[in-house]
Write a structure and sequence with these properties.
It is a single chain. By secondary structure, the chain is α/β, with parallel strands linked by helices. It has helices at residues 7-26, 31-47, 62-69, 96-106, 141-159, 175-186, 294-302, 309-312, 340-350, 363-373, 389-401, 417-433, 454-462, 465-473, 489-497, 516-524, and strands at 70-76, 87-93, 111-116, 128-129, 132-133, 160-170, 191-197, 218-225, 234-238, 257-261, 275-279, 285-289, 306-308, 316-321, 325-329, 333-334, 379-382, 406-411, 437-448, 483-486, 505-508, 528-531. The protein folds into four domains: 7-47; 62-206 and 214-236 and 330-448, Rossmann fold (3-Layer(aba) Sandwich), CATH 3.40.50; 240-323, no CATH class; 476-537, no CATH class. A ten-stranded mixed sheet has the order 1-19-2-18-17-3-6-8-7-16, with helices on both faces. Strands 10-14-13 form a three-stranded antiparallel sheet. Helix 10 (363-373) packs across helix 11 (389-401).
Length: 542
C-alpha cells in the first residue's frame, strides 16, 4: 500500500482539520479540548511534512534497548596484541553500533575513509535483526534494514573529516533504498554510484545463468562524501591499450606509444604553477593551463616524452608508453579489481586452503577505493569488518607506496568471526608478509547506568579510559616511553619522581590537578599536558 496522496487530497484533509480546529476552539476550553487541539495540530504537521523522500517504519534493535540503560566501554585483550612495529591499528569486537558510539568520542571528524560491506538483506539468512534472521516474507524486511543502517550511517557521517568519504557495497535488494537513505544523511549532491563487475575472465569467475531471466554481472558501490567529491577519483595505474597497438612514428626505443592531452580545457585561471606558455618547434606559442607544472613539462621535454603533432606545428601532447603507469581517472565501472573468487583465494592462502568466510571482497577492490580517495597518512574505518579485507588492503597498499595509513576494524563475534577469522587473518598476513603494523584487540563491554547519577558510575568508567585514549591517539601506553597516562593524583606524584627522558606527552584524568611545581617540571622537560575530556566518562551529547 502506498503512503502517497495527491495534492488535492492533502489540501482537502487540511481544510477539514481546520474546520475541526475551529469547532474545538469554539467549545468551552478545558483539558480535553487542549489535548484535542494538540492531536489535530500534530496531524496537520504530518500532512504538511516533506512531500518526497524515503519513507519507512523505524524499528528498535536489541542493542538500542541495551544502550538506553548502559554505556559501552572498551577492554583490551592483551594476550592478542600484535606487535610488529609500524602504525598502531585496532580491532574492536562487539556490536558495531556500540563501537560507533565509542568512536564518536575518540574520532569525531577524524576518519578519512570508511568502507563497509553490510548484509545485503537478501532474505537468505544474511541479515539478523533482533534475535532472528529477516526473511523474504517479513513485511517489515526493508524497514528493519533501513533502521539498522540509518543509526550507523548517521554516526559514520559525524566521524568523517571534511574531505572524508564512505564507500558501501550493496546489491539490488537494497540499492535503491540505500541510495535514498544516503541522499538524506549526506545530501544527494554528495553521493555517487559505481558498478563493480562480477565477471572476470582472468580469475575464471563467471556468473551462473541457470534459472535467470537476466544475467546479473554486477553489484554496486555507493560513495558518500562529507562535503565535496572534487578531489577524488584519480589513481596511479596502467592505461589500457589496444592489443594491436603499433604506434611509434619516431622509432622511440621505449616502444609503442600514444599521445595524451595535457591541456586543462575549461580552466580559465591565469595564476598558478600550471599556467604558462609553451612554444612548439614551428614557433607558435600556446598560453594556457596545463596538466603538468612547468618543471614537470621541462623534465618530460628533456626526456623526449613531449610530442608535437602536425610535424612540430601542433599543440604539445604527452607520450604515454605501453605498460607505463600514469595518473588515471576512475571509471564508474570497476572491472579490473577482481571479484570474490580472488577474495576467497586470498583467504585460502592464509587458512590452509580453506575459506572461513563467504564472499569476501578482494583486496584489490578496497585498494582501489583507498587509492582514489585517501592520502598516505589516512585513518581508515570498517565497521562491518567481516573477514578483515579492509585491514589487509591497507597494509598491502602501505607496503606498495610507502604509506602510513592506519585502520580500525569493528565486527561482532557471531560464530567467533572476530577472533577466529578477522583477527586471525590480520595476524597471519602480518607474519607472512612481515608488514610493519601493530594491532590492539579491544572488546566492547557495557556498564549499567540505569537510575544512577554520573558520580555513581564515573569511577567504574575510569578503569577503561586508557583504552579510549590509546584508540584516539593510536598508541600503546605499556610499550611506549614517549607517552604516559595518570588517572589519579597519586599516579601523577609517582610519575614526577622519575620522569622518563623519552616522555613528550602525558594524559591526565579530568579530576587530576597538577601542582605549580609539577607544571613547571613538565614545561622544563617540554612535556605536553592533555586533559582527558569529560565526555569520555559519560554519554555523548546528542
Amino acid at each position: 500500500m502506498s503512503s502517497n496522496i495527491s495534492k488535492e487530497k492533502r489540501e482537502k484533509l487540511i481544510a477539514e482539520i481546520n474546520e475541526i480546529k475551529r469547532f474545538i476552539e469554539s467549545a468551552t476550553p478545558d483539558t480535553n479540548t487542549k489535548n484535542l487541539l494538540s492531536y489535530v495540530s500534530n496531524i496537520e504537521k504530518e500532512l504538511k511534512a516533506k512531500k518526497y523522500g524515503l519513507v519507512f517504519e523505524e524499528h528498535k534493535e536489541n542493542i538500542d534497548e541495551i544502550l538506553e540503560t548502559h554505556l559501552p566501554y572498551l577492554k583490551e585483550e592483551k594476550d592478542l596484541f600484535i606487535d610488529n612495529g609500524g602504525e598502531m591499528n585496532f580491532l574492536i569486537e562487539g556490536d558495531n553500533l556500540a563501537s560507533l558510539q565509542l568512536l564518536e568520542k575518540t574520532h569525531k571528524g577524524k576518519i578519512d575513509f570508511i568502507y563497509i560491506d553490510p548484509p545485503y538483506n537478501t532474505g537468505n539468512k544474511d541479515f539478523v535483526y533482533g534475535d532472528s534472521f529477516v526473511d523474504n516474507v517479513d513485511c517489515y524486511k526493508h524497514s528493519k534494514w533501513l533502521s539498522f543502517m540509518k543509526s550507523r550511517l548517521t554516526i559514520a557521517n559525524k566521524l568523517l573529516t571534511n574531505d572524508g568519504a564512505i564507500f558501501i557495497s550493496i546489491d539490488d535488494n537494497e540499492q535503491a533504498n540505500l541510495k535514498m537513505l544516503c541522499n538524506e544523511i549526506f545530501d544527494e549532491n554528495n553521493t555517487e554510484q559505481y558498478i563493480w563487475c562480477l565477471q572476470d575472465k582472468s580469475e575464471g569467475s563467471f556468473v551462473k545463468t541457470a534459472g535467470l531471466t537476466v544475467r546479473k554481472e554486477h553489484e554496486y558501490i555507493i560513495a558518500c562524501f562529507k562535503k565535496s567529491n572534487k578531489r577524488f577519483s584519480r589513481y596511479v595505474g596502467k592505461r589500457e591499450f589496444a592489443e594491436n597497438l603499433d604506434n611509434n612514428p619516431d622509432n622511440d626505443p621505449r616502444g609503442p606509444w600514444f599521445s595524451g592531452n595535457i591541456s586543462r580545457n575549461g580552466i580559465k585561471s591565469t595564476t598558478g604553477s600550471k599556467y604558462y606558455t609553451i612554444t612548439n618547434p614551428a614557433g607558435e606559442s600556446f598560453t594556457r593551463n596545463w596538466t603538468l607544472s612547468k618543471q614537470e613539462y621541462e623534465e618530460a621535454l628533456a626526456d623526449k616524452r613531449i610530442y608535437f603533432a602536425k610535424g612540430g606545428a601542433g599543440v604539445p601532447r604527452l607520450k604515454v608508453f605501453a605498460n607505463q603507469e600514469a595518473l588515471l581517472i576512475q571509471s564508474s565501472l570497476f572491472s579490473d579489481v577482481h571479484t570474490s573468487v580472488t577474495g576467497k583465494n586470498e583467504l585460502k592462502q592464509l587458512f590452509n586452503n580453506e575459506s572461513p568466510f563467504n564472499f569476501p571482497k578482494p583486496t584489490d577492490l578496497i585498494k582501489r577505493l583507498l587509492q582514489i580517495s585517501t592520502f598516505k597518512n589516512a585513518v581508515i574505518l570498517d565497521f562491518f569488518a567481516g573477514s578483515g579485507t579492509t585491514g589487509h588492503a591497507v597494509m598491502k597498499l602501505n607496503a606498495e607506496d610507502g604509506g602510513n595509513r592506519k585502520f580500525i576494524l569493528c565486527t561482532n563475534n557471531e560464530s567467533n568471526i572476530c577472533r577466529d577469522v578477522t583477527y586471525e587473518r590480520i595476524k597471519r598476513v602480518i607474519n607472512k608478509e612481515n608488514y610493519q603494523a601493530s594491532v590492539k584487540y579491544m572488546k566492547v563491554g557495557y556498564l549499567s547506568i540505569d537510575n544512577k547519577l554520573y558520580y555513581e558510575y564515573a569511577d567504574e568508567l575510569l578503569k577503561h579510559i586508557k583504552e579510549l585514549v590509546e584508540l584516539e591517539n593510536a598508541v600503546d601506553f605499556e610499550n611506549n616511553q614517549s607517552i604516559a597516562i595518570m588517572l589519579t593524583e597519586e599516579e601523577l606524584d609517582e610519575f614526577t619522581k622519575n620522569i622518563p627522558a623519552e616522555c613528550k606527552t602525558i594524559y591526565l584524568g579530568h579530576n587530576v590537578l597538577p601542582t605549580q611545581e609539577q607544571e613547571n617540571l613538565f614545561k622544563t622537560n617540554n612535556i605536553k599536558i592533555n586533559i582527558i575530556p569529560d565526555y569520555y566518562y559519560k554519554e555523548v551529547e546528542k
